[in-house]
């Protein structure tokens, strides 16, 4: 409590009503080395200053530390919230508004103020937000993220299957869908490993990226990691076949017709789904016709938990488009996600995957 706060309520009343000790002094003789403010700053998960007066906000904005509260703020490394409370004219004053802007630049979160009857009898902005609203705000900001603690492995982009040192067979995948899922999963709290084919888009932040080129390399990268992950999502457009022979020199132009013999690549997602300690497995199906039937067939034959099917080769959606739509199937249900941008679609798909994952793995529900 600041000296001003103690004019309204005595520390003894506050301590009796809250059931918690009240600190008022910068140097606390009861603390080891008398550095009570440092101890308090390290102890707190979050610092809320409520009510925050114009004076306290001004001191915070300018780095002044002449009492316990302002020193505590300066010494804290946890998230800081303020719930301003002051006369409406003081709130609107340019100096206060400058201070508020400065505090927000310093990552201080502001709750309120509310509008209404003020302690001084005036009406307007400056009334402290209701305590229940303040608590709700803090809880909403700090609720556990939906994918907290989940380890997600995802493949994205195309593979390149070389014919000779200068040519390869590939497809139109840009990696945008898989990268959007990796980004959304990271934001939802998951630990994400992204196995990526060659793409030309920005890398998602704070995601472990493993770069590969061929289906064989993608197979090794995924199989090495799959059993250490909770969920595997196969968003990559893996080449089903590769040239049977890799020439060590540039193939020369000779005849009018030429035939390339192809050999089958390993089925990555099918192999993941056959592992003894397999993760929850989510496949994609990219189809130009008969989408639903092919998707359900892949769900069953590859033994997947979920398959997300999208049309490809259309004017919008699928390969190299900013937007996409999905028909998602699992053994006893399905859901459609309408055409939207890939990052919104990724969030929608991930909340369904998280729900189904938790249904199958109730022990992972924290
Ligand atoms: O990358 P974008 O431009 O954003 O486009 C997104 C996308 C269309 C590539 C994506 O949404 C998508 O559909 N990815 C899967 C493409 C694909 O290869 O589908 P498929 O129906 O051929 O394969 C079915 C599933 O088996 C897929 O999960 C695929 O990753 C997997 N597979 C396929 C072949 C193989 N050898 N190994 C595999 O794991």
Plain-language structure description:
The protein is α/β, with parallel strands linked by helices and 366 residues long. The chain folds into two domains: 5-141, Flavin prenyltransferase-like (Rossmann fold), CATH 3.40.50; 151-248 and 259-364, CoaB-like (Rossmann fold, 3-Layer(aba) Sandwich), CATH 3.40.50.10300. The chain has 13 helices and 17 strands. An eight-stranded mixed β-sheet has the order 10-9-6-11-14-15-16-17, with helices on both faces. α3 packs across α5, α4 (54-62) packs across α7 and α9 crosses α13. It is elongated, with a radius of gyration of 29 Å. The model has no long low-confidence stretch (mean pLDDT 94). Ligand PMT binds next to α9, α11 and β14.
Describe the main β-sheet briefly: 8 strands, mixed
Distance between the termini: 36 Å
Radius of gyration using CA atoms only: 29 Å
- CATH topology name of the largest domain, in short, is Rossmann fold
- Individual helix count: 13
Could you give me the name of the CATH homologous superfamily of the largest domain?
CoaB-like
Adjacency order of strands in the biggest sheet: 10-9-6-11-14-15-16-17
Bound molecules: ligand PMT
Class inferred from helices and paired strands = alpha/beta
Roughly what percent helix?
25-40%
Low-confidence stretches: none
Order of helices and strands: HHHEHHEHHEEEHEEEHEEHEEEHEHEEEH
Number of domains in the coordinates? 2
CATH architecture of the largest domain: 3-Layer(aba) Sandwich
Could you tell me the number of beta strands? 17
Instruction: Report the principal-axis shape.
Output: elongated
Mean pLDDT value: 94
Strand percentage: 15-25%
